[in-house]
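Q: What structure does this chain adopt?
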Amino acid sequence: MWRSAVLAAALVWAAAYGAGLAEGPRRSHPPRIGELEPASGRPGDVITARGHSLDRAHVEDLALAAGERHLLVHIIDQDETSICFRIPASATPGRWTIVIHPVGKYAQGIEQPVALTVSRDFRFGFPGPQQYTPDASLPCRS
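A:
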């Protein structure tokens, strides 16, 4: 008799959770980045990483990794499906993988299946009028 009662209770419980009628234990998916927009940039550029479980409840910070080098990035904005960050000024040209540091006391970094290509920073300031003095010895002058 008690076996049929336990079986009936188990069936009711399974039907309720399976139909979404009752709140069961939520499975938390680890944060994951599936794409970067744009996939390349220069130091100082803003990149948007898209994926899931990327909000502050799941992601503490983000880093770029190339071999033994790890650079924390400045997160500008963050929600469930995206993180906007700035490429650090100290990022050297090359291919960098994205590493998520999840929230948690003992959380390990999670390397993502996407990479960011950092190019050289060719932006520079042109000299102002007070800094430029024409020089007759330049080869382009006649």
